[in-house]
Design goal:
disordered N terminus; SMI1/KNR4-like; two-stranded antiparallel ribbon; about 220 residues
Length: about 220
């Protein structure tokens, strides 16, 4: 699937009612700045192709505080409280969502980050809620609400405990279960975990999500 069809798919997915805002002119909310001050981050990437999203499209899809935050903090990862947070660059979002086939498997979501260990953070378009969803199987069935909005989400991470020390060795890697948990793999066995690059992670997730979808469709016949 090429990038332009993916942009078109996302444009259809993100087309919701709402006022169009000029997100490029918004400054970072003081509450967000306070929460992010606890983040022990390292620079990363970019991992995916950089494509500036259409301004009107993003303005309709996500709130201004989010776009301001990614403009300031995108391309970083590390511990915020007890939780690991990777934020993609604003210009990576279209490519990230294309790579993981989000319009196919989880329409209505926009992935913007992850915990680096198998869980994606995404906007639920139209509500502004933040969801945590597994990369495999990607979809709404196992989605968990982790924030009523972006500020609430970041605040929950910041308040999850004393921020753990930075892990430079984790930067730029995703933890991958070689035998995916949804297919019976162990979530705790260290031998079932390897480190992979984000691009390889997307390829692996694509293979297993396609297999999972085919098995589900076969059972439903």
């Amino acid at each position: 699937m090429g990038l332009q069809p993916a942009i078109d798919d996302l444009a259809g997915t993100l087309s919701i009612e709402g006022a169009v805002l000029d997100y490029t002119m918004n400054s970072l909310d003081p509450k967000l700045a306070s929460h992010f001050s606890k983040w022990r981050w390292e620079p990363n990437g970019p991992f995916f192709r950089l494509v500036d999203p259409p301004e009107a499209l993003m303005a309709q899809a996500v709130p201004a505080d989010f776009t301001a935050a990614l403009t300031e903090y995108g391309g970083r990862e590390g511990f915020l409280g007890q939780c690991y947070l990777r934020l993609y660059r604003l210009a990576e979002l279209l490519s990230v969502n294309e790579a993981f086939a989000v319009p196919r498997y989880a329409p209505g979501l926009l992935i913007f980050g992850s915990d680096g260990a198998g869980e994606a953070y995404a906007f639920e378009l139209g509500t502004g809620r933040i969801l945590m969803v597994p990369f495999v199987p990607l979809g709404m069935d196992d989605a968990q609400v982790v924030g009523n909005d972006f500020i609430h989400f970041v605040g929950r991470l910041a308040d999850s405990g004393t921020t753990l020390d930075a892990r430079p060795d984790r930067v730029g890697w995703d933890v991958w279960a070689t035998h995916p948990i949804v297919f019976g793999g162990s979530p705790t066995d260290p031998s079932n975990k390897i480190l992979v690059s984000p691009l390889l992670h997307a390829e692996l997730a694509g293979y297993w999500n396609n297999l999972y979808r085919r098995l589900v469709e076969h059972r439903e016949r």
